[in-house]
């Protein structure tokens, strides 16, 4: 399975909304500018996320998008499944010999396990750690 830009940029949207959770709506324009992405493309990704009940839109001059639930309740797997479809690493494994079938199934289950146990809260914490490690302090 290869995660396309839909999945990658969809995660970007959701991580940004998680970072601002409780602070009001965030516009896709702001997310696009901060991440050097196309607003139009992010709009296309926001629609299925909204239809899946992961985000909601707020209208008005200070409108944008917010998460429907707190970041700790939204799994990366939920987002990827909405934007990419089912998680399948290898198609047509039923035609493979049993040893290879078992390997493909183990790999698929491992990927699902990671995606289904990683929350947006985890991802925002990871991003904070990465940002903190970029700073160098000299005395």
Automatic annotation (TrEMBL):
Record Pfam families: Rrf2
UniProt keyword list: DNA-binding
Example of a GO MF term: DNA-binding transcription factor activity
InterPro entries: TR_Rrf2-type_CS (IPR030489), Tscrpt_reg_Rrf2 (IPR000944), WH-like_DNA-bd_sf (IPR036388), WH_DNA-bd_sf (IPR036390)
Keyword DNA-binding: yes
GO cellular component entries: cytosol
PROSITE patterns found in the cross-reference section: HTH_RRF2_1, HTH_RRF2_2
NCBIfam families, per the entry: Cys_reg_CymR, rrf2_super
Listed name of the protein: Rrf2 family transcriptional regulator
Species this chain originates from: Ornithinibacillus sp. 4-3
